[in-house]
Write a structure and sequence with these properties.
single chain, 365 residues, mainly alpha, 2 domains, 3-stranded mixed beta sheet, 15 helices, globular
Length: 365
């Protein structure tokens, strides 16, 4: 019986390594993610407050030199390349095996890059742990008291906001983040944050997206159709993500605190009126909800009605459902079990914030 001589040349080994190295990196990151899920303090110490601030500083300084969205441009080019490769494969200009391998390699590298430049922040401790909050038990009386307070502050801070105010608002939001960095458990300055307008604002408005954070290039994005009354709150929300706050509820809390503690009425009003929407949503099943609504001043009611009709007029139900489902799956994949319901959990966080602020004030006396 003849022996089969199997020899592998150095060139073959090199080709194999070039083919599989993205998958090896992705596997290592996957293992790291599994570890991070159960070791949040380790993540916070070595990544969120260790490595990430340097990454944010480096990438944001570069991306801020470009006035348009690199994140949007990146995905346009990615889609174009995918379609071009598919056409070449169909017409047999490239082999299907080659095309499929390149797609999988690219996906693996994007997975690695996402977690390295921002994604590991998903596994840091919750804000209650980071800033040593005392847990507040759910209480209907407390909820009503806070809702009353928010309505009162919304009424008293009412002011008209103009698009010409945006540059000043951006500076004021930054000032407030600097002032509240310790209370929110974030690193300041953590790079820089230049708000950019979405390239496809109309498309995203149809799916109800008012803003998003692009992690690959550390970019803040705001929808062109954003209303002036929403601008400070949404801007502060997206900046919260740049600071490494990943959950939507915590980003909403950070936006509220940043706006509410500012001396500027434009920020205050935006913070209170946008938070009021979440509280009214939670209060919608209360028998005396109309009694609370009657306490809201007419100009505020008009703003809320206009806000609702504005986004409903832009919305496409099909796109909205697709985007919600995609976002829900994305959040759940990244350690946010509640998915899109996490947005409204800002109500519980705000109640805890008030409770702990009062506790700290009592201890100082």
């Amino acid at each position: 019986m003849k022996k089969i001589n199997i020899s592998v040349s150095k060139n073959d080994i090199r080709k194999i390594i070039l083919s599989i190295w993205p998958f090896i990196l992705a596997l290592l990151v996957f293992i790291s993610v599994r570890y991070a899920v159960h070791n949040s303090r380790f993540v916070d110490l070595y990544y969120s407050t260790g490595i990430y601030p340097f990454i944010a500083e480096m990438i944001s300084r570069i991306s801020n030199l470009i006035p348009f969205s690199l994140w949007d441009l990146f995905w346009v080019l990615t889609i174009v390349l995918l379609i071009a490769g598919l056409i070449l494969a169909i017409f047999r200009k490239v082999r299907w095996k080659w095309y499929g391998l390149r797609v999988l390699q690219s996906a693996a590298l994007l997975y690695v890059f996402f977690y390295f430049v921002w994604g590991f922040n998903y596994f840091r401790p919750k804000i209650e742990t980071r800033v040593s909050w005392e847990k507040q038990k759910p209480d209907d009386a407390v909820f009503r008291s806070v809702l009353d307070s928010i309505i009162s502050h919304t009424n008293s801070s009412y002011v008209s906001v103009s698009t010409s105010d945006y540059p000043t608002i951006d500076r004021l939001v930054e000032d407030s983040y600097r002032k509240n960095s310790k209370e929110l458990g974030i690193n300041y300055p953590n790079g820089s944050r230049l708000p950019k307008t979405m390239m496809f604002s109309s498309f995203f408005a149809k799916s109800g997206v008012s803003g998003y954070f692009g992690p690959f290039f550390n970019e803040i994005h705001l929808n062109y159709y954003l209303l002036p009354m929403e601008y400070p709150f949404v801007l502060a929300h997206e900046k919260a993500h740049q600071f490494g706050i990943t959950t939507e509820a915590e980003a909403n809390l950070a936006a509220f605190v940043v706006c509410m503690t500012s001396d500027d009425h434009r920020l205050q009003y935006s913070g209170y009126v946008n938070l009021l929407v979440y509280f009214l949503s939670d209060a919608s099943q209360m028998k005396d909800i109309k009694d609370f609504i009657r306490k809201i001043d007419k100009p505020v009611i008009q703003d809320l009605r206009f806000q609702r009709s504005h986004w409903q007029g832009l919305r496409n139900n099909t796109l909205d459902k697709v985007q919600t489902a995609a976002n829900n799956a994305y959040l759940k994949t990244n350690n946010i079990e509640e998915g899109v319901k996490n947005y409204n959990q800002v109500v519980a966080l705000v109640i805890s914030y008030y409770h702990n602020s009062e506790r700290i004030d009592r201890n100082k006396r």
